[in-house]
């Protein structure tokens, strides 16, 4: 009897903990406002986001414990501005995606409130938690699944961290290449446009003098 | 039963965590973030402006009483550590109100407390073996490597955004200048010609 209570209690707590970030960072947005966050990540990196919303109650003058009837639309764009996830979730939700190209991914949240922007005076409190890369791993779960000893689990954590560092270094190399290409393009542009402008200057100067000379000769002033 | 509940206690309250987010701050805008912290927790707030304008932002950190713990204007990068003096909601705000038309991208990392232990049974009486403590020190070192990598990535993003801005600006202004050059030289010639045009044509034009 006690065992059953303990198990159900733990299960409920773990579910609650897994589903909603109860003590996470929170911020306020307008009911129809869209809020975007940027995550610059290497490729093949998993990102898990969890959020919980609360609606402002005008009568009570405080936030309700949840946002009844209000869902959140989550839209995730990859570095090429292609939408990789665009889904509607409830007032509490969890979204996850894995990046396939390295770069800046944009995670946008807005509520699906049907009110117009002018009339919607409501505020939403959004608790948000975004975990990237090796922070997405749930070590107690991995230990239980693969039946690892404590030492093995620690080594596993170190391996995950090193893998993340390696991916980031790889991404760094790709970014440095892009930076170098941009700098070289700027260098080329400055060089060629300076030469072009000098040539234009000389040519227009010569044209001006020749044109005016022939004009004055025609007018018999010279 | 009691020890079990004790193990699960961290799951119920006092989530010890680090939140790092990168968001865009439009001009004349202010964005605030709140976090509930328990007394005695050591917290660190670090922020860096990634792109936009002069790469600076106003930052302000307040405790639940409204006392300003940290306030800096037009800072590019800073790190602030404090210990929560009381329970409650701490608030930190980033303001771009001094800027008229530049959007800023701001990164911040708010660390509350220490990392959660790997196992729920971390607080056991027996000490760690040598292997385990070696693993712990490697883990800490790797965490600082990842931290340095993040800061390097942000500085690189800053440099890259400046370089790309420069690139487009060079192209735009070069084309503009070449165009202006042509227009000015042609209009100079036309104007000069108009000075020397025949008196007869000017009088007839004025007459009609």
UniProtKB/TrEMBL annotation, chain A:
Chain ranges passing through the membrane: 190-209
Residues in the signal sequence: 1-24
Topological category with respect to the lipid bilayer: Single-pass type I membrane protein
Record keywords, A-Z: Endoplasmic reticulum, Membrane, Signal, Transmembrane, Transmembrane helix
One Pfam family linked to the record: EMP24_GP25L
Places the protein is found: Endoplasmic reticulum membrane; Membrane
Protein name per Swiss-Prot or TrEMBL: Transmembrane emp24 domain-containing protein 4
GO CC annotation: endoplasmic reticulum membrane
Domain (GOLD): residue spans on this chain: 34-155
Family assignment from sequence similarity: Belongs to the EMP24/GP25L family.
Gene assigned in the entry: tmed4
Coiled coil: none
Automatic annotation (TrEMBL), chain B:
Residues that span the membrane, as ranges: 170-196
Keywords: Endoplasmic reticulum, Membrane, Signal, Transmembrane, Transmembrane helix
UniProt keyword annotation of Chaperone present: no
Location in or out of the cell: Endoplasmic reticulum membrane; Endoplasmic reticulum-Golgi intermediate compartment membrane; Golgi apparatus, cis-Golgi network membrane; Membrane
Matches recorded under InterPro entries: Emp24-like, GOLD_dom, GOLD_dom_sf
Any one annotated GO CC term: endoplasmic reticulum-Golgi intermediate compartment membrane
All copies of domain GOLD, residue ranges: 30-112
Source taxon at top rank: Eukaryota
SUPFAM superfamilies, sorted: Supernatant protein factor (SPF), C-terminal domain
Signal peptide range in chain numbering: 1-18
DNA repair as UniProt keyword: no
Bilayer topology term: Single-pass type I membrane protein
PANTHER family, A to Z: TRANSMEMBRANE EMP24 DOMAIN-CONTAINING PROTEIN (PTHR22811)
Record-stated family: Belongs to the EMP24/GP25L family.
Protein name: Transmembrane emp24 domain-containing protein 7-like
Originating organism: Carassius auratus
Classification of source organism: Eukaryota, Metazoa, Chordata, Craniata, Vertebrata
Gene behind this protein: LOC113106914
């Amino acid at each position: 009897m006690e065992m059953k209570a303990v198990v159900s209690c733990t299960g409920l707590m773990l579910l609650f903990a897994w589903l909603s970030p109860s003590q996470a960072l929170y911020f306020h947005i307008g009911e129809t406002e869209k809020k975007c966050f940027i995550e610059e990540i290497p490729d093949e990196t998993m990102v898990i986001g969890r959020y919980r919303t609360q609606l402002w109650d005008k009568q009570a003058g405080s936030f309700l414990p949840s946002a009844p009837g209000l869902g959140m639309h989550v839209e995730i764009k990859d570095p090429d501005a292609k939408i990789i996830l665009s889904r509607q979730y409830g007032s509490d939700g969890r979204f996850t995606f894995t990046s396939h190209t390295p770069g800046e991914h944009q995670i946008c949240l807005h509520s699906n409130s049907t009110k117009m922007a002018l009339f919607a005076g409501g505020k939403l409190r959004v608790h948000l938690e975004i975990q990237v890369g090796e922070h997405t791993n749930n070590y107690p779960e991995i230990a239980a699944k693969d039946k690892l000893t404590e030492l093995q689990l620690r080594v596993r954590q170190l391996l995950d961290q090193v893998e993340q560092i390696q991916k980031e270094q790889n991404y760094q190399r790709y970014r440095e290449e892009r930076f170098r290409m941009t700098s070289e393009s700027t260098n080329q542009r400055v060089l060629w446009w300076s030469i072009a402008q000098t040539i234009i200057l000389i040519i227009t100067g010569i044209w001006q003098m020749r044109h005016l000379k022939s004009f004055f000769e025609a007018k018999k002033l010279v | 039963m009691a020890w079990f509940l004790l193990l699960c206690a961290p799951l119920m309250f006092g989530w010890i965590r680090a939140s790092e987010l990168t968001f865009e701050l439009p001009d004349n805008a202010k964005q605030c973030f709140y976090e509930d912290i328990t007394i005695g927790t050591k917290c660190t707030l670090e922020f860096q402006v990634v792109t936009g304008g002069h790469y600076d932002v106003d930052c302000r950190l307040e405790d639940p009483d409204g006392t300003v713990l940290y306030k800096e204007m037009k800072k590019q990068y800073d790190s602030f550590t404090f210990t929560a003096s009381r329970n409650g909601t701490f608030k930190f705000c980033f303001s771009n109100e001094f800027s008229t038309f530049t959007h800023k991208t701001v990164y911040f990392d708010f660390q509350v407390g220490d990392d959660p232990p790997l196992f729920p049974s971390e607080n056991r009486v027996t000490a760690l073996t040598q292997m385990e403590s070696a693993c712990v020190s490697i883990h800490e070192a790797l965490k600082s490597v990842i931290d340095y990598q993040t800061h390097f990535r942000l500085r690189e993003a800053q440099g890259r955004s400046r370089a790309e801005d420069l690139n487009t600006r060079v192209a735009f202004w070069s084309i503009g200048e070449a165009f202006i050059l042509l227009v000015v030289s042609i209009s100079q010639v036309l104007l000069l010609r108009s000075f020397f045009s025949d008196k007869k044509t000017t009088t007839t034009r004025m007459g009609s």
